[in-house]
Amino acid sequence: SFGAWFLRRHYDVAKLSPNFPIMDDGDSVDLLKSLFPDQPRGELKGIAKAISRAKDECLSPQDDLRSISSKPFFPEAYEAYEQKLRAIGNVDFGDLILLPLILLEKHDSIRKQIHQRFRGLLVDEYQDSNSAQFRLLQQLKGPKSCITVVGDDDQSIYKFRGARVENILNFEKQFPNTVTIKLEENYRSTGRILNIASHVVSKNKERLGKTLWTQNDMGDKAKVVYLQDYREEAEYFSRILEDEEYSGTAILYRTNAQSKAFEDSFRQQGIPYRLEGNLSFYDR
Q1: CA 37 from chain center: how many Å?
Q2: Where are the beta strands (DSSP E) in the chain?
Q3: Under 8 Å between Cβ of 172 and 180
Q4: Which stretches of the chain drop beneath a pLDDT of 70?
Q5: pLDDT one-digit tens code per residue, 48-70
Q6: Nearest-5° angle of CA 125, CA 131, CA 137?
Q7: Element (H or E) spanning 44, and its range?
Q8: Model confidence, pTM
Q9: Which one of 15, 77, 246, 247 is most buried, by most CB atoms within 10 A?
Q10: CA atoms of 35 and 144, how far apart (whole Å)
Q11: In the chain, pLDDT over 90 holds for what percent of residues?
């Protein structure tokens, strides 16, 4: 959103129309299909992802792209895509970071304006930032700027999407006079859960290191249960709940669609339940 705001203000320097459209992933594939109609759509989806990754790494069609894709066709496709994108005046998601970065690097006057306007910079989930985002942050920082980044190096799991854990590991070297504040007290988990988590992440090769602790009780031992599929998972919980106090049990699941398997099993077993923060599958 910051990149879109920035480009709306400097559309003329970026050689864009004032009301330039922002293309989503599907639009990018459509554009590639118009350029290469004989290529299968599945192949072009891979090309579109590779182009997005290249922009995250600040790589142009003229750069060495072998780290992004080994397909001989990729540089040609990237070059044609970029030419068409600029000709029609559109931008994609990658451009929302890369184009502001290019403008800030090339134009001193724009960079000084930004430094005067934004004295405080806050970046959340910094462990998930990529190369282009890091370089953009460098350009946004002025002589009197104050930068705060929040992140957890042990939660950096998006390397396959271009995230660089080095951004947070090397922050003190890249931005001198840094003060590091470790938030080590945990308020939600039991002591046993924290011990398990700490033991797992201690195996990470690249980490700043921290000692998690809590004033909560140690709690029950954790169980690792191997189940074949979501149906068996729902049946497993139903069996557990037969011996439990219903009011003291909560089940956490990641996506709304997962509630149906639990609801079906609970209804069959006559187990009462209530969904928090969402409608039940049958209410929907």
Answers
A1: 32
A2: 22-23, 91-92, 120-123, 146-149
A3: yes
A4: 244-245
A5: 999 999 999 999 999 999 999 99
A6: 65
A7: helix 41-56
A8: 0.81
A9: 77
A10: 47
A11: 76
Query: How much of the chain exceeds pLDDT 70, in percent?
Result: 99
Residue count of the chain: 284
Q: Compute the distance between CA of residue 84 and CA of residue 51 in angstroms, rounded to an integer.
A: 14
What residues pair up with 185 in beta bridges, in sequence order? Answer: 213
Is residue 103 within 8 Å of residue 13, measured between CB atoms?
A: yes
Nearest to 129 by CA among 105, 102, 149, 114: 149
Nearest-angstrom CA–CA distance, 56 and 240: 46
Tokens standing for residue 187: 């308020």
- Residue-wise pLDDT for 168-209, tens only, equals 999 999 998 999 999 999 999 999 999 999 999 998 888 888
Contact of 71 with 147, CB cutoff 8 Å? no
Q: What are phi and psi of 251, to 5 degrees?
A: -115, 125
Please, which residues have CB within 8 angstroms of residue 236's CB and are 6 or more apart in sequence? Answer: 225, 227
Question: To which residue do tokens 């350029």 refer?
Answer: 35
Rounded to whole angstroms, the Cα distance separating 247 from 235 reads 19
Distance from C-alpha of 231 to C-alpha of 120, rounded to nearest angstrom = 50
Contact 184/210 with Cβ under 8 angstroms? yes
Q: How far apart are CA 103 and CA 120, in angstroms?
A: 20
d(CA 98, CA 150): 22
